[in-house]
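Milestone 3.1: sequence recovery, worked example.
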């Protein structure tokens, strides 16, 4: 598959009712094709060792799903009553509570109530258009992934200093994304899958465990037990909705557009810094304006 030829951001045609930079109708007019069409076969040439890397979390990892979502409910059914020496797993969960891809149906324009390619909320409510199954039908998401390990880059630049809190609205600017890419010499290509590591998963795993214990005596405090860890996780997920992520700005929007990623992903619940400002929501640009799936955690 050859690369697409995209116009410059400012040269994009104006779509009525949408901000400058909208890509509706670029890939097709029936609302189903999206940025995943940019995944190229030559990405297979990057494979060197064939080593598998597990990126997703287990379903039960997050104790306190955000925004009132239900946690995983898992029971094991004994089939002895049906005459079998066997067990079944019975699972009930919200897919947003662990590692997942946001489909183009997940999030719409909050002001205009439309989704990718102009489909309305009511139209999607009555159909399966733009659902996550569309990604599965095409064979899943397989491509050249590039890791932007911002956390490691930040700690290398700031030795001995705690990084910005994962449960703060710390905004990672384009300049630091570029610096992180340059550190190992990574070059981006059209159709890449951008993966950003900001430290949210590490915070969740080691909450209340300082990175530099010699500067903090909290680990010796008996009150710092599993219940205390649960309390601080609850604070980070249920009682406040602050998350580290990409800066919500016009500069970030233009940078993402210029890179023409097939998909983006990160180790947080929201990819962009949360809460987002009224004037710029990366969710809306990625999912609604461009048809770019977002992977989380």
């Amino acid at each position: 598959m050859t690369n697409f030829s995209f116009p410059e951001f400012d040269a994009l045609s104006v779509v009525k009712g949408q901000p400058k930079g909208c890509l509706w109708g670029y890939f097709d007019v029936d609302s189903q094709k999206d940025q995943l069409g940019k995944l190229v076969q030559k990405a297979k040439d990057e494979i060197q060792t064939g080593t598998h890397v597990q990126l997703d979390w287990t379903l039960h990892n997050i104790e306190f799903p955000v925004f009132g979502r239900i946690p995983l409910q898992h029971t094991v059914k004994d089939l002895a009553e049906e005459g079998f020496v066997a067990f079944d797993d019975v699972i009930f969960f919200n897919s947003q509570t662990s590692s997942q891809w946001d489909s183009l149906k997940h999030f719409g324009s909050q002001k205009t109530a439309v989704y990718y390619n102009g489909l309305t909320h009511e139209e999607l409510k009555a159909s399966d258009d733009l659902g996550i199954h569309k990604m599965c039908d095409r064979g899943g998401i397989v491509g050249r992934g590039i890791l932007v390990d911002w956390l490691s880059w930040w700690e290398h630049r700031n030795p001995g200093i705690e990084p910005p809190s994962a449960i703060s609205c710390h905004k990672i600017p384009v300049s630091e994304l570029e610096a992180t890419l340059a550190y190992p010499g990574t070059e981006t290509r059209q159709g890449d899958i951008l993966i950003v590591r900001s430290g949210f998963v590490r915070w969740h795993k080691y909450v209340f465990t300082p990175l530099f214990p010699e500067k903090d005596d909290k680990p010796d405090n008996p009150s710092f037990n599993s219940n205390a860890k649960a309390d601080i996780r609850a604070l980070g997920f249920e009682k406040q909705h602050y998350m580290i992520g990409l800066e919500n700005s016009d500069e970030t929007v233009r940078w993402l557009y210029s890179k023409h990623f097939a998909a983006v992903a990160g180790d947080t619940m929201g990819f962009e810094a949360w809460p987002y400002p009224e004037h710029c929501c990366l969710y809306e640009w990625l999912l609604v304006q461009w048809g770019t799936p977002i992977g989380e955690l």
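Residues 110 and 205 are 33 Å apart (CA to CA). The two ends are 29 Å apart (CA to CA).
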